[in-house]
Amino acid sequence: MSDTQLASMQNAAPAVRFEDFGLSPDILRALADQGYTHPTPIQAEAIPIVLQGRDVMGAAQTGTGKTAGFSLPIIQSLLEHANTSASPARHPVRALILTPTRELADQVADNVKAYSRHTPLRATVVFGGVDMAPQTAALRAGVEIVIATPGRLLDHVQQKTLNLGQTQILVMDEADRMLDMGFLPDLQRIINLLPKQRQNLMFSATFSPDIKKLAASFLQNPVTIEVARSNATADNVTQVLYKVEEEAKRDAIAHIIRDRGLKQVIVFSNTKIGASRLSRHLEKEGVKASAIHGDKTQAERMAALEAFKQGTIEVLVATDVAARGLDIAELPCVINFDLPYNAEDYVHRIGRTGRAGASGDAISLYTDKDTRLLADIEKLIKHNIARLQLSGFVPQRSSERRPRRDDSESGASPSRGAQYGRSAYGPRKEKVDPWFLKPYEPEPSTGHAESDTAVANKPATTKPQKTKVAALLGGTPKR
Question: What family is this (predicted)?
Fold first, then answer.
C-alpha cells in the first residue's frame, strides 16, 4: 500500500456501504439510526486505514464527514476493551480527540456518543468556560473516549482528575487552527504525557507547512489521504463578491438578507466588537440576530448556537471561533462581512454551507483596502471569485444632506445636533446658563443683619454677645 493515497469525489464508489468495512453490528445500528448507509469519500478512504492501526493525515473539504472518518474506526478498535463494570479502573482513557474550539469539541462529542450509543463505551467532553465539577465527576467515573480543548484538558491533568497513561489513540481535529490560536506549547505538553506507542491521526481541511512540520515530529510513517484538491472549496458552493464602501457594509448586509429572504445565515466578522455592533444594527433593522465570539460566556455561546439551529435566530454573527467544524443542517448561505486575515479561514468559513452535497451561497463584501487579502484567498483556492454589483442597494451617505448655516433663518427645523448645542460644522458648544450673564446685584438687607454703617456707629462699650456652645463641646450646661 502506498503511503500517499489520492482520491477524488468521483472515484468514491457509490456501491460501498458501511457494512463493507467490518464494523460492529452495534455501530451499524447507530449509523442506521442516523440515516447513514453510504460513506463519504474521506470516510471510505480513511476508515480501512485507521482500522489497520496506521497513522493518518487526512485532508478533505470541510463538510465531507471527517468526524465519522476517524470516530467510527476508533469506536470499532476500542470495542475489545468495552465492559459494563462500574469500576472507574476498568474504563481508562484510551482515545483522546483534541479540537481548537469549545463548539467543535461539543459537536464532535455529540457525534461520538451517537455512534457509540449501543455499545458499553463511555465518552465525555471537557472544555473551558464552564464549571469543572460535572466534567470532573464524569472523568472520575471512568471514560474510554475524551474529546477536549487543550487548555481545559491540562487543567484536569493538573487537578489529577485525568490520566493519559493508557491512551492508545490521539486525534488532532483542525490542527492547523490550533497552531493559529497558539496551542503549540499545550500540544507539546499533552504529547509528552501520552505513551510512546500509540496511533496518531490528524484531520483538517487545510494542511499548512507548519502543520506538516508538526506532523513530522510525532507521526510515524503516516498515510496521507487527500480527497479532492487540498485547500479547495466545494463546487456546489456559489461564491460572489460585492464591493461596498466601508461605512455602508452594515446596511449592505441588511439589504442582502432582506432581498434574498434569508432565514438562516452566518455572517463572519474579524473582530468581536465588530460582530456585536453588526448584530445590534441588524436587530434595529428588524432582523433577528445574535453575536457569538470569545467575549461571550460559554453558556451564552451555546444558547445562541442552539437558538440559531432551532430557527429562533435568523442571523448568527460570528468571529472565526465558529468557522471550524460547526455543522448546521442545510445552511443556505454564509456572508463574509470582513474578508479573513488568514486565507485558509476563508475555506473554513464558506464550508459551513454546501455540506453533505447540498448547494449553498458564499457572499463576501470587500473594499479597496482588502486587495491583498482577496489576492491571497484567490491564490489559495486557485480561481477568481466573481465580482458582481449589489443590485437594488443604494448606500446612505452621511454627507448627502448637511444642514446649511441659514436653515434656522429660512424657517427650517434645527438639526438634532443643534438642539443639543452642537454645530454641524464645528465642535460641540457648551450651553451657557443665562443667570451668569446678569450684572451683579447686591443682596437686599434683611431684619436679621445690620448694615456696615450701623456696625461702625455702634458704641464701643457694647459688649459682644457670646456665641452659645453646646455642653458636649465645652459649653456651660443648663441649670
Answer: Belongs to the DEAD box helicase family.
